[in-house]
Amino acid sequence: MDVAIIGIGLHRFGRTENMSGLQQGAAAVRSALKDAGIEWPQVQFAVGGSQDAGNADSLVNELGLTGIQFTNVWNGCATGGSALHSAYSAIKSGEYDLGVAVGFDKHPRGAFNPKPGDWGLDDWYGEVGLMLTTQFFAMKIQRYMHDYGISNDALIRVAEKAFHNGSLNPDAWRTTALSYEEIAASPMISEPLRKYMFCSPAEGGTALVLCRADRAHQYTRHPLFLKAAVVRTRYYGSFEVFSPAQAPAVNQSATVTASRDAFELAGIGPEDVQVAQLQDTESGAEIMHMAENGFCQHGEQEKLLREGATRIDGRLPVNTDGGCLANGEPVGASGLRQVYEICHQLRGSAGARQVPGKPSVGYTHVYGAPGVSGVNIITR
Amino acid sequence: MTNQRPIREGLFTWPAERPQLLGSRCRACGEMAFPSQNDCRHCCGSDTEIVELGDRGTLWTWTIQSFMPKSPYHSDETPETFRPYGVGYIEMPGGLRVEARLKENKPEELAIGQAMSLSIEPFRRDEDGTEVLAFAFQRSEENA
């Protein structure tokens, strides 16, 4: 059974002082239900996740106690990808006809502070100051730049594009474009990554209404189809966050297999994708993920960025809504925001940030600690 | 005399004249791990032994921690006394790359491929005054 997306909803990312994370999740669900033209009692099941804003199934207290199956998922930054995959599988299997995938969060200001014990590590690792995601991203891109001849110019251009796209997106958190010079002069956080090259923990909610494809036209004249939803974890030898050591063997990232398997499932290749959302926790991640997802060769990114290939008017627009850099990262909601944006692009409703040429194939990729990748392929 | 203890037993040989990092080696497939573990995440077996990983290596990648981390970071520093520190992966003989604090904290002092050596040093004090020892790496002129 094919799976359709018939409703999309978002509660604006950033800071909403007077609303809990859960309430932001509920607002996203209501908005998605309205978009699909249905009411909460019609929803047969839901899957949701949040890291710091409570159990997703508490949403029934806001939306209504209708007795449905509601499953909580948590997979680090890939939580949204995993929630969507679970909902996709439930419909694809034929068990349910219509359901909701939802993610929301509300993080305190400043960097995340994960506990070693939650990640199968001993306390000393955190105590001596090695348990920071920022360090991992910096060290991965540092080595990548060394191996593939990527320069600081590429890191700056990714951030410049993100904040430009954010300035075209009324729902973005950061809606002010930043110049190349401002980014290049921002404080160094973790060599080689500067302040404006990192996304920040944030708040927000996203929800999607899914149904079996053969019923989609009952709800909308313009359904979109989720052709592939794939989640994969790391291999022995891949370089991942929160690793006290890396194996002598070198292996590809979970992103490579998630991407390859998603393309196989959808029966298309990277050359068919017209708009993409790639995990950009920081500038370097977007660069590495361009190649890991099969959109270019390792090392080719420098040239592509200089040519503007990933801008909204480029050959393969990437992170058209400003990505994590301009939207911040409410962990539970972030992966679903990527899908929300792709749906707008494929519907032609992305406003000032609309990709020209009526794109019909979109792609999303989320990456989370400690080596989880989720890829979705969406078509008209 | 000040009492000393390693931040965790089994990370490095202590006391020792020339401390060595400790890890484990799988008796079935030969793969190494740090810190040591009972099971092998390469071949999925469960027959490992503790081995010395050495005290010299080369810098595989690095960054600099410029701000004082939040909990679970646990040193004796305050935001005022915090000193930025390097972080890197050191490629040890045999190929295992171990993550460690680096004593250097300026970009011009660090380069991929640089020879590095192990250093065991007081990191903080327990309430009773015992010095807690942690491992770090520093630039070394000797080749690995």
From TrEMBL, chain A:
<dbReference type="InterPro" id="IPR016039">
    <property type="entry name" value="Thiolase-like"/>
</dbReference>
<dbReference type="Pfam" id="PF22691">
    <property type="entry name" value="Thiolase_C_1"/>
</dbReference>
<feature type="domain" description="Thiolase C-terminal">
    <location>
        <begin position="246"/>
        <end position="375"/>
    </location>
</feature>
<protein>
    <submittedName>
        <fullName>Thiolase family protein</fullName>
    </submittedName>
</protein>
<dbReference type="InterPro" id="IPR055140">
    <property type="entry name" value="Thiolase_C_2"/>
</dbReference>
<dbReference type="InterPro" id="IPR002155">
    <property type="entry name" value="Thiolase"/>
</dbReference>
<dbReference type="GO" id="GO:0003988">
    <property type="term" value="F:acetyl-CoA C-acyltransferase activity"/>
</dbReference>
From TrEMBL, chain B:
<dbReference type="GO" id="GO:0003677">
    <property type="term" value="F:DNA binding"/>
</dbReference>
<feature type="domain" description="ChsH2 C-terminal OB-fold">
    <location>
        <begin position="51"/>
        <end position="119"/>
    </location>
</feature>
<dbReference type="InterPro" id="IPR052513">
    <property type="entry name" value="Thioester_dehydratase-like"/>
</dbReference>
<keyword id="KW-0238">DNA-binding</keyword>
<feature type="domain" description="ChsH2 rubredoxin-like zinc ribbon">
    <location>
        <begin position="14"/>
        <end position="47"/>
    </location>
</feature>
<dbReference type="InterPro" id="IPR022002">
    <property type="entry name" value="ChsH2_Znr"/>
</dbReference>
<dbReference type="Pfam" id="PF01796">
    <property type="entry name" value="OB_ChsH2_C"/>
</dbReference>
<dbReference type="Pfam" id="PF12172">
    <property type="entry name" value="zf-ChsH2"/>
</dbReference>
<dbReference type="InterPro" id="IPR002878">
    <property type="entry name" value="ChsH2_C"/>
</dbReference>
<protein>
    <submittedName>
        <fullName>DNA-binding protein</fullName>
    </submittedName>
</protein>
<dbReference type="InterPro" id="IPR012340">
    <property type="entry name" value="NA-bd_OB-fold"/>
</dbReference>
